[in-house]
Amino acid sequence: MSQTIAAIATPPAPSAIGILRLSGDGAIEAAAAVFRPTGGKSLAEYESRRLVYGTLLGPDGAPIDQALATISRAPRSYTGEDTAEFQCHGSPAVLQLGLEALFAQGVRQAGPGEFTRRAFLNGKLDLTQAEAVADLIDAETPAAVRQAAGQLSGALGRRVGAIYDGLVDLMAHFHAVLDYPDEDIDPFRADTIRAGLEEARAGLSALLATYERGRYIAGGVPCVLVGRPNAGKSSLLNALVGYDRAIVTDVPGTTRDTVEARCRLGGVVLKLIDTAGLRDTEDAVERIGVARSRAALEEARLALLVVDGSEPLTAEDLAAMDEAEKAPRVLCLVNKSDRPPAADVEALRRRFPNLRVVSAATGAGLEELEGDIASLFPTGGAEAAGELLTNARQAEAARRALAGVERAGESLAAGITPDALLTDVEEALSALGELTGASVREDVTARIFQRFCVGK
Ligand SMILES: Nc1nc2c(ncn2[C@@H]2O[C@H](COP(=O)(O)OP(=O)(O)OP(=O)(O)O)[C@@H](O)[C@H]2O)c(=O)[nH]1
Ligand SMILES: [Mg+2]
């Protein structure tokens, strides 16, 4: 028995169409109670996935909309349960009344992600696919869409599944040898196991190597603007996002708190963080700001080092350079190119070869930044979209799996008996099982009987 849940699936704003959806054992019955098809018969009598035109009724039974309804019977639905969906006119009031009418039928409000959670629990999606649903909804770039769509179609799950299956084969063989010594089974061979472990190790290393790219494709690039006060960091942030997000003045020390904004550049989303100009200061507020700037740098994947090109370099510029270099990548922007140059650009270029001369005031040089970002954070690559690790949960599980496989390989090389390896391989399997949401024990047992016919 599953409780029937309902939710408004579209944003709470007037729009052309608004969607109400339901899932659970009583979904079709509840939907039929609040909808009168123009054809006369009950919605519950219609076949699955048929679009039915009719009148949606409010909590008091009065018509509230002319709408389209569709039902999908279990198990052929998104959640794997009986489901129903109404396409109404997109008035938040209509949708709210429709929802209340459903509540009057004993349906309850769905929690966040509950439809997808049910889909996962009913085996419609693995965990990576469930995560892809959220990633797809949040996708802001074509590359993010391609990655999420590929993952939703199961690409990452299949890639992990192939490694998992290889290890399960090894395990099944171990178990068969250990648990059923009397059966006529090939004794394990160390070189077969070594090869199996090596294959898994290589597969997991390659998978982990995708994380760097997968992460910025799906989640964007944390990017900090660093530089001495008045270099033009806030002006550049505003120029990049296209509106006056941060306060700009000619007073050094204008920005104190960190200011965040997003912009799309070179095929990725830059999560820009404007910071207080780095300098030693007596001002208590500004000091906190400088500390926050340093903290932001630790999280950053890219530092945009901003230098005022219209003035000679100062000690504060040099200090900012050292700070910027703490980020994994640095792009130096020599700002204020609309003014007569005074900074030693050639000296700068020796330290930051991929330097760009720009002007936040005129926009000069900013278009070229697009290409710089694209080459620092390429979105294409050898891996097919959808096969990359994109979040910390996945990467952590993959790292644990790799560690288990590596330990097993070391034990084997050290001549430890095969059953001692089992624990390590099992740990790798359970980590991979967590990644995709599969269960380990059942799979292992199933394989033993399926492949070795031991139990007959
Ligand atoms: N001519 C010219 N002036 C600029 C340019 N960019 C910024 N400025 C000016 O430089 C001054 C400082 O700019 P901000 O953007 O506030 O500098 P900041 O680096 O954020 O400074 P703090 O917040 O104090 O660390 C302002 O007067 C801006 O108008 C530019 O490209 N050309
Ligand atoms: Mg500023």
- Give the CATH topology of the largest domain: Rossmann fold
Oligomer designation: single chain
Q: Tell me, what is the CATH class of the largest domain?
A: Alpha Beta
Main pleated sheet: 7 strands, mixed
Bin the helical content.
Answer: 40-55%
Would you give an account of this structure?
With 456 residues, the chain is an alpha/beta fold. It has three domains: 5-110, Gyrase A, domain 2, CATH 3.30.1360; 133-210 and 386-449, Up-down Bundle (Four Helix Bundle (Hemerythrin (Met), subunit A)); 217-376, P-loop containing nucleotide triphosphate hydrolases (Rossmann fold), CATH 3.40.50. It contains 16 helices and 13 strands. The strands form two sheets. The protein has a seven-stranded mixed sheet, with helices on one face. A six-stranded mixed sheet has the order 9-10-8-11-12-13, with helices on both faces. Residues 440-456 have low confidence and may be disordered.
